[in-house]
Design goal:
Mean pLDDT: 89
Order of helices and strands: EHHEEHHEEEEEEEHH
Strand order of the largest sheet: 1-2-3-4-5-6-9
Distance between the termini: 32 Å
C-alpha cells in the first residue's frame, strides 16, 4: 500500500546530512571507477546514435532515423539511471525523508525509493515498446509490396514483443508495481519494494547488517514469527529474499543508504526512541544524522 505523505518535511531537499554519518566499512570496496567507464561508453553510444539519426534523416533512409533516435534516448536514460544508482550513492543525505502513515493509518517515517530509478525504468520500458511498435508498423506496412511473407511474420513477432514490454505499464496501472519505500513506525517496519510488500515488527528484528553484494545493501534479518510478505507482481517486480527479512538495495533508495543503515540500527538498539517515529523529531534526527 502506498504511504500517505503529510506536509511535514524539514530542511531542504539537498541538506548534506550524508556528511554527518560515516560510510560503513563493509561498503569500503564500492568501486565507482568501472561505472564511470561504463557510463562514458554508453554516452558515446548515445552520441553515435544521435549523429546516425541526423545523417539518416537527411539521407536516403529517413524512415530508419527513428530507430537510432530511440536508441539514443534509451542510452541517455541508462546513463541517468546508472549515475543515480551507481555513482551518486549518498543522494543528498536524508532530505527526502518525510512523515507518512502506514497501511493501518498510523504515523510513520517514510524512507522513499529513488524517483529517478523508477521513472527511468518506466521510460526505458516505454522506449522499448516504441522500438517494437515502430518495427511492427514498418513490417506491417510492407505486407503486400513483395512476394515474401517475411514482413507479416516479423510484424507479428515484433508486435508480440512490444505487447510483452507493455505489460509493465499494466502492472503499474493496477498498482502491482510501485516506486517503493520503507516505513518506520513505533510498532515495526513496512517495506514496499517494486513488486512485493513486507512487514516486520521490531520485536522480530534479529539484527541489521551492511552487505556489499550488487552495491551497498542494508539487510534487516527477521525471525519467522510475525514476519509477513506478499508478492504484488511476479513479472517485472523483482524477487524477494528467501530468508525472513528486508533487503534494501542502496541503488534503489532515494536517500543515503548509510543514513538508512544507522537509522534502523539506532531504533533497533533504542526501543524508547521509537515513539518519535512518524513525528518531526524523527525527521530532524535523520537530517542531522544524530544516531551516535
Amino acid at each position: 500500500m502506498r504511504p500517505k505523505l503529510s506536509a511535514v518535511r524539514l530542511g531542504t531537499r539537498g541538506m548534506p546530512s550524508s556528511s554527518l554519518v560515516p560510510w560503513p566499512s563493509e561498503w569500503a570496496n564500492t568501486k565507482k571507477m568501472k561505472w564511470y567507464f561504463g557510463l562514458a561508453w554508453i554516452g558515446f553510444l548515445a552520441l553515435v546514435s544521435f549523429v546516425g539519426a541526423a545523417v539518416m534523416a537527411t539521407g536516403e533512409s529517413p524512415g530508419s532515423a527513428k530507430y537510432l533516435l530511440i536508441f539514443g534516448l534509451l542510452f541517455v536514460t541508462i546513463m541517468v539511471v546508472g549515475f543515480d544508482s551507481r555513482v551518486r550513492l549518498r543522494k543528498g543525505g536524508g532530505g527526502k525523508i518525510s512523515a507518512a502513515t502506514d497501511s493501518q493509518g498510523r504515523p510513520a517515517t517514510n524512507v522513499p525509493y529513488s524517483r529517478i530509478a523508477f521513472a527511468g525504468s518506466s521510460l526505458l520500458m516505454a522506449l522499448l515498446v516504441a522500438i517494437f511498435a515502430a518495427a511492427t508498423y514498418d513490417f506491417a506496412s510492407s505486407v503486400g509490396t513483395g512476394e515474401s511473407k517475411a514482413p507479416l511474420g516479423a510484424a507479428v513477432v515484433f508486435g508480440a514483443i512490444g505487447l510483452f514490454f507493455a505489460t509493465y505499464f499494466v502492472q503499474i496501472a493496477r498498482k502491482r508495481i510501485a516506486r517503493g519505500h520503507l516505513l518506520l513506525t513505533p510498532h515495526g517496519l513496512e517495506h514496499r519494494s517494486w513488486g512485493y510488500e513486507s512487514q516486520l515488527p521490531w520485536n522480530s528484528v534479529m539484527h541489521v547488517s551492511a552487505l556489499n553484494g550488487d552495491g551497498p545493501e542494508v539487510w534487516i534479518r527477521g525471525s519467522d514469527n510475525h514476519f509477513a510478505r506478499r508478492r504484488t507482481a511476479k513479472l517485472w517486480g523483482g524477487k524477494p529474499p528467501r530468508a525472513a527479512g528486508l533487503a534494501l538495495q542502496g541503488k534503489s533508495l532515494g536517500v543515503d543508504p548509510a543514513l538508512v543503515y544507522y537509522m534502523i540500527s539506532y531504533y533497533l538498539a533504542q526501543p524508547s526512541a521509537r515513539a518519535e517515529l512518524g513525528t518531526e523529531a524523527a525527521i530532524r534526527r535523520a537530517q542531522a544524522g544524530s544516531y551516535f
